Amino acid sequence: MIELQGVPIIERLVRLFARHGADSISIIINRQQPETLAHLMMLKEKFPIEIIVKDTPSSMHSMHALSSSLKGDRFCLTTVDTLFHESEFTAYIEAFEKCGCDGLMAVTDYIDDEKPLYIDTDSELEITAFCDKATVNSRYISGGIYGLTPRSLKILDECMEQGVERMRNFQRKLVERGMKLKAFPFSKIIDIDHAEDIAKAEEFLAEK
Predict the structure, then answer these.
(1) The domain spanning residue 63 has which CATH number?
(2) What is the average per-residue pLDDT within 20-33?
(3) pTM across the whole model
(4) Helix (H, G, I), strand (E, B) or coil at 184
(5) Scanning 14, 83, 106, 121, which has the fewest C-beta atoms within 10 Å of its C-beta?
């Protein structure tokens, strides 16, 4: 519910996805956020929103809770604290609609994360590994925006059954299972993790 340019972060994403042709927008929030739920219920009158209220231990578990709403078509997933310029997101969605890969992952060479997930790619930007530490092939880090096909949900189910934890380990499993994932570079993606990030986020959105 933190506002950037006068708009709550969650509402900014809802409007962004709606402008980019989302057939439905599935959102998971925890039980400790009644004000967020109330705001989403108001937005639901204007946008095709489905809301799940559930506490989960990680982003991977949150994705699994949403998975029943994601089956049957390609989908784009993001966390609420990921901030980017809309023009780059437009280019990303257009590329995702045209690509024949199993997944298109947003990446950036701007490192603003306390624990970045480094992305190894080949010369064609196909992802070869997800790494906790940078390697000679790690030009980018994960931007927290995932475009995936329904095939990924079967692998997600397997991760849950096997007790795999964390979103990055699910992504590693995608590579292990032979899914063709490509990287799509954004110039800058910011995570809003702390109070001091808000001013930085406002300055970023004001950039031309």
Answers:
(1) 3.90.550.10
(2) 93
(3) 0.92
(4) strand
(5) 121
